Amino acid sequence: MTTSTIKLTYLDMIVQSIDILKIRGGASRQALYKFLQTHFKKFSVCFDRAFRLALKKGVEQGILIQNKQRFKLAPKGKQYLKKFK
């Protein structure tokens, strides 16, 4: 399964972005936002809202760890990432 054949959710794109950016302390909200806008062509009218909700959902599900305005992958997030590789 490649990423071009499956439909990516905002959470999927965020998890992939964090993995690609490889920032030690976690990727900032602004860095993730810019990365999604430049590398993924999935934009909707309510992009901002969907982006914020995906971050919130990722933290609640234990996929992401939030430290102030930075996000990094939790151990559960690294397993979640394996479905794209």
Which structural class best describes the helix and strand composition? Answer: mainly alpha
Query: How helical, in percent, are the residues?
Result: 40-55%
Number of helices: 4
The portion of residues forming beta strands comes to 5-15%
Total count of strands: 3
How are strands sequenced across the largest beta sheet? 1-3-2
Taken in chain order, the helices and strands follow as HEHHEEH
| Cα-to-Cα separation, first versus last residue | 8 Å
Total tally of structural domains: 1
CATH topology: Arc Repressor Mutant, subunit A
Radius of gyration: 12 Å
CATH superfamily: Winged helix-like DNA-binding domain superfamily/Winged helix DNA-binding domain
CATH architecture label name: Orthogonal Bundle
Q: Could you describe the largest sheet, including whether it forms a barrel?
A: 3 strands, antiparallel
CATH class: Mainly Alpha
**Mean pLDDT reading:** 85
User: Which runs of at least 5 residues are low in confidence (pLDDT < 50)?
Assistant: none
Quaternary class: single chain
Shape: globular
Tell me about this structure.
With 85 residues, the chain is mainly alpha-helical. A 3-stranded antiparallel β-sheet has the order 1-3-2. A hairpin with a 2-residue loop joins strand 2 and strand 3. The longest helix is centred in the middle third of the chain and has 15 residues. It is globular and about 30 Å long. The mean pLDDT is 85.
Main attributes of the structure:
single chain; Arc Repressor Mutant, subunit A; 3-stranded antiparallel beta sheet; 53% helix
